[in-house]
Write a structure and sequence with these properties.
This protein is α/β, with parallel strands linked by helices and 397 residues long. Helix content is 45%, strand content 12%. It has one domain (23-391): Alpha-Beta Barrel (TIM Barrel).
């Protein structure tokens, strides 16, 4: 018969994890984020263009990944260290550019950059950011900062941003080329999303459900774009009035002449486009369909990656984004030809779920999952991934 002492020894005295510590995957962070921010904010991060088929296909592609582990390998010590555009990184991950970041949480871009600096991985500030180029450097000293540029109709203003990034010490310039006009982001249209959020009857009613989010909005500095003023408050109106739909490869060549550091072109989904931008002077490309947020039914980036990597992997560095939700996804992307993976939604779920602590939780989860995947594959480092350890299963008929 059990004694009380026996039973007491089985009773846990530790408090169960709370907050983001209780989230054990990016999916858990997403669920928590949904409960902590107003629907228009969550939908801006979670949604995509049109019927969101590109988004669905991108995440589904990673479910078609098949691992072929090698057993009886010594995996006592493993490392995911790599080099990204000339700088050592402990993990093949770049925190990608996202717009309106302080809308997700008042700590915004500085919180993300501090996490990246602590982890030793790059962070990319967006042209559509809510923290200025200079303020971010002050907020995250020592961070490997990249700057993402949309080419504006006013080339002088684009050059000014490039000059400011140079002066502030940003290391890499990422030019996004898949936004000639705004994509049909229907969730944002239906939610009436504006920057800053308007106080309507609907939003006022929502304050009761998300009091901490609204309290932070009204007590922190006004939410606005840090690199320009006077733009339309709706996303489509802003893009269509300020971004230049006439941009061609000649503009990339012009930009190459304005920037001395590594130049990366983001928004490539075909081998033809990849060859064209590399010939124009790009040091790297991001195989990306903008997270499915521009052209619905665009190519699935994980499926496009192997052919591009096979043709151009020795001429430029190739990054991958789109649909990445776990460290296992990161390992799959690297195995199929990427030098590193770039994520946006994954860390934004963390930011919405718990601010800086949530971003750290997202990065920690991705890192731990990647190292575990390497061990289970029988690989001690990223260099071991090229021996048929990863493949894509054929799509079902």
């Amino acid at each position: 018969m059990w004694s009380w002492q026996d039973l007491r020894s089985l009773l846990g005295t530790e408090r169960p994890p709370r907050g983001v510590a209780a989230c054990h995957s990016v999916g858990d962070l997403r669920d928590r984020a949904r409960r902590r921010v107003p629907r228009p904010v969550f939908d801006y991060v979670d949604g995509a263009a049109g019927d969101e088929m590109s988004l669905e296909r991108s995440t589904a592609a990673f479910r078609s990944v098949e691992f072929h582990p090698r057993v009886l390998r010594n995996v006592t010590s493993v490392s995911a260290e790599t080099t990204i555009l000339g700088r050592r990184s402990p993990f093949p991950l770049v925190l990608g550019p996202t717009g309106f970041t302080r809308m997700m949480h008042h700590s915004g871009e500085p919180a993300v950059a501090r996490v990246a600096a602590a982890a030793g991985i790059p962070y990319t500030l967006s042209t559509m950011g809510t923290t200025s180029i200079e303020d971010l450097v002050d907020a995250a000293p020592g961070a490997d900062l990249w700057f993402q540029l949309y080419i504006w109709r006013d080339r002088a203003r684009s050059k000014d941003l490039v000059d400011r990034a140079t002066e502030a010490g940003y290391r890499v310039l990422v030019v996004t080329v898949d936004v000639p006009v705004a994509g049909p982001r229907l969730r944002d249209v239906r939610n009436g999303l504006t920057i800053p959020p308007r106080l309507t009857l609907r939003s006022l009613a929502g304050m009761a459900r998300y009091p901490s989010w609204w309290a932070n909005v009204v007590t922190s500095p006004p939410l606005s774009f840090a690199t320009f003023a006077g733009a339309p408050s709706d996303l489509a109106g802003l893009i269509n009035s300020m971004f230049d739909p006439s941009v061609t490869v000649e503009d990339l060549e012009w930009l190459r002449g304005q920037w001395d550091g590594p130049l990366v072109v983001k928004g490539i989904t075909t081998l033809e486009a990849a060859r064209e931008v590399v010939a124009a002077g790009a040091d790297g490309i991001v195989v990306s369909n903008h997270g499915g947020r521009q052209l619905d039914r665009s190519p699935v980036t994980l499926e496009a990656l192997p052919a591009i990597a096979a043709a151009l992997g020795d001429r430029c560095e190739i990054l991958l984004d789109g649909g990445i939700r776990s460290g296992a996804d990161v390992i799959a992307g690297v195995a199929l030809g990427a030098r590193a993976c770039m994520v946006g939604r994954a860390y934004l779920y963390g930011l919405m779920a718990g601010g800086e602590a949530g971003v750290k939780r997202a990065v920690d989860l991705l890192t731990a999952e990647a190292l575990l995947t390497l061990r289970l594959l029988g690989a001690t480092g990223l260099g071991d991934l090229g021996d048929g350890l990863v493949s894509l299963r054929p799509a079902p008929r």
